[in-house]
Amino acid sequence: MPRPTQAFIDLSALAHNLTIVRQYVPRSRIMAVVKADAYGHGLLHAASALKDADGFALLELDAAISLREAGYRQPILLLEGFFSIEELALFKQYQLSAVIHHSEQIAMMSDSKHHEIDLFLKINTGMNRLGLAPEQFPQTIKELRENQCVNSITLMTHLASADDPLKQERVIQQLQRFEAVTKEYNHPRSLANSAAIIRYPETHTDWVRPGIMLYGSSPFPDKTASDLNLQPVMTLSSKIIAIHNLKIGDRVGYHGLFQADRPMRIGIVACGYADGYPRHAPTDTPVLVNNQRSRLLGRISMDMLAIDLTEIENVELNSPVILWGKGMPVDEVAHQAGTTGYELLCALAPRVEKIALTQC
Ligand SMILES: Cc1ncc(COP(=O)(O)O)c(C=O)c1O
User: Fold this and answer.
1) Among candidates 4, 10, 73, 44, which has minimal Cα distance to 267?
2) 40-59 exposure pattern, b = at least 16 Cβ within 10 A, e = fewer
3) What is the CATH T-level fold of the domain 234-357, as seen in this structure?
4) For ligand 1, what atom is nearest to the CA of residue 213?
5) In testing the pocket of ligand 1, which one of 209, 223, 330, 340 has its CB within 8 Å of the most ligand atoms?
6) Which sequence positions are flagged as catalytic?
């Protein structure tokens, strides 16, 4: 029998979450964000469930090509654009769209000549990550409109704080900057990530770019995925591979961080940080064992973790354990470990077998 640590990818949940996005933005086109191997879910599995999306966005060129070769005909947007003139030829060959965020990319396009590329021109409205400064915009768009290498131009920006209920004024400021810079130009626009799709209808422009909500995790600290009617897509599961009885004073795991203050029964689960489980998850982080809520004990090892079975009924060797997913929200585990659902999903290790489920 193989090691029992597996990630089940529920494709019908992914398709359901896409319909939820559609309900928020009935008049926008949806660019499903599938970077980082579809947030750890497996690119081609995820794309098959998202086949009704109007486009895909990611930033790995080889992954973009594999999507095209798999037969997807929608626009495929590279969120960091291209890095060299050589790559531009591939953009043309595979009809990939590129984010343009600095003038060197425009120089590369001019040097390469006649690659009719669809561009998303990114404006830095306050996040200070990627994008042209607002002052650069008028000259840049003039040049791009005259550049024969350009097929179409969409104007975009990225919002830094749409997920933070206390930072509404920052979102408004970014939107005002975007409007001030672009109002004279009649190009399609793209502004919204998941949080903005849900909280800021004014960002529902020609294209929206949902990522995390497609995968069934909430972008917000104050709303759960189920509050938003999103279904978990990845369920990370394993089994109990050892059981021990502890006496008062016995310690568990590296450095004995957990010490029993009463007689206890514990289970060892075949999942550790080399599988992508967060090493910083503390004692009491929830897990599901045989469909009952239990908790971690002590430090996470590379390949294993310990859980409390003292109050759990009907557990034995090989009883199933869910680390996150169905019945155990990834956001709850992430919160306990001081991180986000994004990080946990993306960090799923390659050694964990992914099993796509079409019917659940
Ligand atoms: C430019 C851009 N657009 C959209 C997204 C999707 O964001 P989210 O996963 O929060 O929906 C991302 C993800 O980080 C991004 O970098």
Assistant:
1) 4
2) bbbbebbbbbbeebebbbbb
3) Lyase, Ornithine Decarboxylase; Chain A, domain 1 (2.40.37)
4) 11
5) 209
6) 35, 254
13-24 burial: b if 16+ Cβ within 10 Å, else e: bbbbbbebbeeb
The predicted model gives 295-318 an average pLDDT of 97
Closest of 103, 39, 205 to residue 56, by C-alpha: 39
Alpha helices in 151-216 (DSSP H): 168-182, 194-199
| Full-model pTM | 0.96
Give pLDDT tens digits for 333-357. 999 999 999 999 999 999 999 999 9
What CATH code is assigned to 11-215? 3.20.20.10
Q: What is the pLDDT of residue 215?
A: 98
Atom of ligand 1 nearest to the CA of 99: 1
Identical fold for domains 11-215 and 234-357, yes or no, is: no
Q: How far is the CA of 211 from the centre of ligand 1 (A)?
A: 6
Q: Which amino acid is at 45?
A: H
CA 352 to centroid of chain Cα atoms: 18
Residue 328 DSSP label: B
User: Is 146 a residue whose pLDDT tops 60?
Assistant: yes
Q: Per-residue pLDDT tens for 85-121? A: 899 999 999 999 999 999 899 888 888 876 789 999 9
For the chain, domain boundaries: 11-215, 234-357
